[in-house]
Amino acid sequence: MGHDHSRPTAAAPPRVRRVLIATVVPLFLVTLVAALVLWPRDTPSVGGGEDAPRYHGTVTRVVTEPCPPAPETPEGTTEGPCGTATVTVDTGPDAGQRVDTPLPAGPGAPSVEVGDEIVLVVLTDPADPTVSAYSIAAHQRGKPLIWLALAFAVAIVAFGRWRGLAALGGLAASFAILLTFVLPGISAGQAPLPVAVTGAALIMFVVLYLTHGVTAQTSVAVLGTLASLVLTGLLGSLATAFTHLTGYGSEDATTLSMFQADVDLHGLLLAGIIIGSLGVLDDVTVTQAATVTELAHANPGLTRLQLYRAATRVGRAHIASTVNTIVLAYAGASLPLLLLLTADTRGVSEIVTSEFLAQEIVRSIVATLGLIAAVPITTGLAALVTTAGRGGTPTRRLPRPAGERDEALAALSGPRAATGPTDSAPAPGRSADTDPTW
């Protein structure tokens, strides 16, 4: 996450490092204490019923046939394909045997061909539990996903080298925190907002320092990200309360409430906003901190205010493109919902103010406001840290001593010493007869 700024930055003055350590370390310790307090200890199991046994198999033959006529019903008829597939069972008690299964049909049913590796489920007849049959549930996606993940990792390491390897480690740490702390904590009935803020802070500390190194520049990005995360959480709380959002704006949330009634869906909505904003926030904060550092390196004479203004101009351009990125990301994830809205016969105002679309609008607005706040916060901190060694005043060249200056002027105005034959022409305004150099 974030941009790659591989130029080694100059070490911050000792006083600045002490201030950063005294600020970042207590915040990290507070995050660890909060994680220990909120860590899930008794995660309840979801009572969704016993799943049907699943086994792997390979399709060896497909036989299609015309579908029998079905009576017309108000709900409509289910179109094919019709026929049977012969599958060699690869795992389970019937491994090595061939079984015939009906071709999957209906909305979302997988389309199978000879050679496909598929997942079989064993369905039991409710009227006679001793009678069971195999049915094709889905394709096996394990191997394709592994190959895609390997290509992803190789591309990142080949381009980013050690920094790319560190980025992969940060990505693994992010998923580990989400799967072991954030999701189990919310499932255990903890308040989603503090769990999400704590989890996002843990991810931020691990990913930023692992990817960008333990430097003053990274510490500035950490402080800017943490401040922006807290502000995003507060803005999200105010926005969801102001618009009276309940968190029941999607089918997934409604289904979750049926299986886990103690989950706070309103808090879950806020947690989703914070977790979703983190990835873009650290990109902005790392970029702003690096921009200030590079500007100060390129022109040490810039004052603290000049550094802030110049880096803020870069931040404005970055935010202008990032806002579009956020909106398109939410739109891409909600394309089925948007298509459903286009087919709705209600008025536009009624559709826009409905729960499921209003919460997407609130997500985009709150995330954008958090990003906008991250630019001045991080830029100001970076300008303070970068100029702390010189007190915020421009560095000036020290005048040369009078003796050295006179010697330099004499050397420039005196005759040039001959260094050997040359074919060069005399300088303009000089004559080869009067200037012994030429």
Walkthrough of the structure:
A five-stranded antiparallel β-sheet has the order 3-2-1-4-5, with no helix packed on it. It is α+β, with helices and mostly antiparallel strands and 438 residues long. The chain has eleven helices and five strands; from the N terminus they run H-E-E-E-E-E-H-H-H-H-H-H-H-H-H-H. It has helices at 14-38, 142-187, 192-212, 216-242, 251-259, 265-298, 304-333, 335-342, 348-352, 355-386, 402-413, and strands at 54-64, 83-89, 98-102, 117-124, 132-139. The relative contact order is 0.10. A hairpin with an 8-residue loop joins strand 2 and strand 3 (98-102). The protein has a domain at 163-388. The radius of gyration is 33 Å and the shape is elongated. Residues 1-6, 73-77, 391-398, 416-425 and 427-438 have low confidence and may be disordered. This is YibE/F-like protein. InterPro entries: YibE_F.
Concise structural overview:
The protein has 438 residues and is of the alpha+beta class. Strand 2 and strand 3 (98-102) form a beta hairpin.
How are the SSEs ordered, and which strands pair?
Blueprint: H1 14-38, E1 54-64, E2 83-89, E3 98-102, E4 117-124, E5 132-139, H2 142-187, H3 192-212, H4 216-242, H5 251-259, H6 265-298, H7 304-333, H8 335-342, H9 348-352, H10 355-386, H11 402-413
Antiparallel strand pairs: 1-2, 1-4, 2-3, 4-5
Helix pairs in contact: 1-3, 1-4, 2-3, 3-4, 3-6, 4-6, 4-10, 6-7, 6-10, 7-10
Outline, from the CA principal axes? Answer: elongated
> What share of the residues lie within helices?
55-70%
Strand content: 5-15%
Q: What's the rounded overall pLDDT mean?
A: 79
Report how far apart the termini are. 62 Å
The H/E string reads HEEEEEHHHHHHHHHH
Number-wise, the strands total 5
Are there runs of 5+ residues with pLDDT below 50, and where?
1-6, 73-77, 391-398, 416-425, 427-438
